[in-house]
Amino acid sequence: MDIRTRPGTGTNxxxxxxxxxxxxxxxxxxxxxxxxxxxxxxxxxxRSTIAGLATELEExxxxxxxxxxxxxxxxxxxxxxxxxxxxxxxxxxxxxxxRVVVGRVGLGGRVxxxxxxxxxxxxDPRQVGDxxxxxxxxxxxxxxxxxxxxxxxxxxxxxxxDGVVQFAPNLDWHxxxxxxxxxxRIRHDVPIALxxxxxxGALAEHVRGAGLGVDHLVFVSGDVGVGxxxxxxxxxxxxxxxxxxxxxxxxxxxxxxxxxxGNRGCWETEIGAPAIARAIGAPADSVATLGAxxxxxxxxxxxxxxxxxxxxRGLATVVNMLNPQVVVLGGFLAPLHRHVGPxxxxxxxxxxxxxxxxxxxxxxxxxxxxxxxxxxxELAFEPLLADPVGVLS
Length: 393
Prior knowledge:
Blueprint: H1 13-31, E1 33-35, H2 36-43, H3 47-59, E2 63-69, E3 78-83, E4 89-95, E5 99-106, E6 110-118, H4 125-140, E7 147-154, E8 157-159, E9 164-168, E10 173-176, H5 178-185, E11 192-196, H6 197-208, E12 217-223, E13 225-232, E14 235-236, H7 268-271, H8 273-280, H9 290-295, H10 302-322, E15 326-331, H11 333-351, H12 354-359, E16 361-363, H13 371-386, H14 388-392
Parallel strand pairs: 4-7, 7-11, 12-15, 15-16
Antiparallel strand pairs: 1-3, 2-3, 4-5, 5-6, 8-9, 9-10, 12-13, 13-14
Helix pairs in contact: 1-3, 2-3, 4-5, 6-13, 10-11
């Protein structure tokens, strides 16, 4: 999101002040550290107003003054503003196919504490909720500031308006009210929001990762299955019901294998974790941890090159449809790219239309394995960023 947000024209002075405080906090949160001079330019306000807003946010405990910052170009260093250390924070919960990760995340996207635990195959949602609650308690044990929100990522189709996971095939969940499951176990009076893992990976990489400053991005996530989060014109693309991005179910080969979605020959049947595990001779029980298997893989690369060509051809369809500037390959697709990236790129360029194929840059997540976790944190921070006074006063 561009920090060059102009002040609003609220109905009164108080509304304008709160809007400006929100704009400044969002700017500092995204930058981590900036200067009053940069904020003055970005927000089109005078220096005394910026100083007053910074002081008010400091009193709320969300920013602090820092050493002077030298802005790009000529000029003297300006007073610095940075996010507060152990102030307001959120819980970010990343539910995977075989594990749960819970992080206490501070402003600026800093993971302050983290807990992780494996979960059984096809777990009951209540079991997962119990694990989440235990990890959340451990993560919050040494918290030094207020908890302001909880964000949850799941590898499935999420109905955002009520937090229902409509379909998470690799967890075998159908119409699970997981937001309520979490709320019943983590008894904090803070907002809880759920999102799809790929959507949240795209959000985090757009805000502070490989897509920083990029308005058109696709984050393709490999977590047993394959999905995508899409940023277009700087905003998430969710579709009419929030189901956009199911690229794993592109009709790829009409004569191919039956997919768990019920169709035949989906792209996921060729590049999903089970397909890669079969191709490299990995045991069936390694599917959920395929990323780690690929990180350590030293076998014949020809099997991976075959998969790479399937990845490249499917990505060509994605690129032709969405014309992104950047495609980020997350999950097990990141180590696959490190092994056979040139093969993926070559096939993508050979299969895509020339113009969009030439424009796109293919990369792995700048945030590493934390893309989805930090995306859940961004989701949880949104109420605070929209109105810090309302949340903290």
